[in-house]
Design a protein that fits this description.
With 326 residues, the protein is an alpha+beta fold. It has 7 helices and 10 strands. It has 2 domains: 132 residues, MutM-like, N-terminal (N-terminal domain of MutM-like DNA repair proteins, Alpha-Beta Barrel), CATH 3.20.190; 125 residues, Helicase, Ruva Protein, domain 3. It has a 4-stranded antiparallel beta sheet with strand order 1-6-7-5. Strand 2 and strand 3 form a beta hairpin. The structure holds a DNA duplex (16 and 16 nucleotides).
Amino acid sequence: MPELPEVETVRQGLAKWVAGRRIASVEVRHPRAVRRHLLGADHFADALAGRMVVDVCRRGKYLWLPLDSGDAVLGHLGMSGQLLMQPATVADEAHLRVRFTFDDGGPQLRFVDQRTFGGLSYSEGGAELPAEIAHIARDPMDPLFSDAEFVAALRRKRTEVKRALLDQTLISGVGNIYADEALWRAQLHWARATDALTKPAVGRLLGHVRDVLSEALVAGGTSFDALYVNVNGESGYFDRSLNAYGREGEPCPRCGTPMRREPFMNRSSFSCPRCQPRPRRGISPASRSGVGRGRPGCSSTDDSLASEPDNRDLTLRGSPRWASDR
DNA sequence: CCTGCCGCCTGCGCGC
DNA sequence: TGCGCGCAGGCGGCAG
C-alpha cells in the first residue's frame, strides 16, 4: 500500500532514471491501466511518442512526469502498482500493464500492477500541476503546507479524526497504515470527533503524522538508487517499526495491553484499548459552519529532495525541513 | 455543500 | 488436494 514515503521513494528513483530522456514508444498492455484517459489507449500512446520527460513530481500519492510539451503523464500506484526500470532484455512481468521505451535504447519504464487499482493518464497542460489532482492538498512535508490551515480545516469537519487524516483534500499522503501509527503516537482513538479536538491536540497529531512519514521515508529510501525501483508498500523496510498497524493481539509497545482491531470503512483500524480509549461521544449530529476553500498550488516536491548521483543518505541532503523539525 | 458508503480488482491464506 | 471466501485498500462517484 504505497503511501507518501513509498511514492516519494519511487519519485526519487524515477527522476534519476527518466529525467531528460525522450520517449520512443509506449505500449499499453492492458486497457484498464489507462482507463482514466478518456481518449483511449491509442491516443495515450500516440501523444507520448517523441516527447521528452523533464522531471518526476509528486502530489500526495500521485506522481506525474512533466513533458517538454507542457503536458504530463499522470499516475497513481493504487495498492499494488509499481514503476520499474528494466533493461529490454528482462522478461515481461506477469502483470505488466504499460511499457515506455526511450530513444536512447536504455532501460524501459514499466508500469506493473496486479490489482489494477492504479493507472496512468495523459494530462494536457499538466506539467506544472495536472488539473485532475488540483483538489489534492499538499502533504505535511511540503514547505508550503500550512499547519494552521490544516488545524483549522480539520476542526471545522464534522467527522471522525481518522477519516480526516485519510481525506486527501485536507492533508495528502496519509493512508491507513500511517494514520493508525500517528493516532497511536498521539494516543487518540480513530473515532474521536474532529470538532471536539483542541488546537494543541491537532497540532500534536500533525507532528506525529510528520514524524511517522519522515521516519518511513528514510527507511524506504535505503535502496532507491537501485535500477529496480520497487514500490510494493507491503515489502517496505518500515514494517518492523510499526507500533499499531497489523498488530492485533500483540502487546502495545507503550503499555503492554493487547492491541485491538476494529472494523473501519470496510477495512481495519488498529489501536491500543488503554492508550487510545474509545470516545464517549460520537460525531455531533448537525451544526453547520463556514465553507472551506481549496486553492490551487504548484508542484510540491521538485526541490526539497532533489536526487543526486550518490545519495544514500538522503536524510541529510539539503536538510529537509522535517529532518530537524522535532 | 457536506458526509459517508459503494464498487472497482486480484492474490493470498485460511477453513472445511 | 481443492475450492470458496474474506481480506487487503485508495479513490471517484454518488446518494442522502
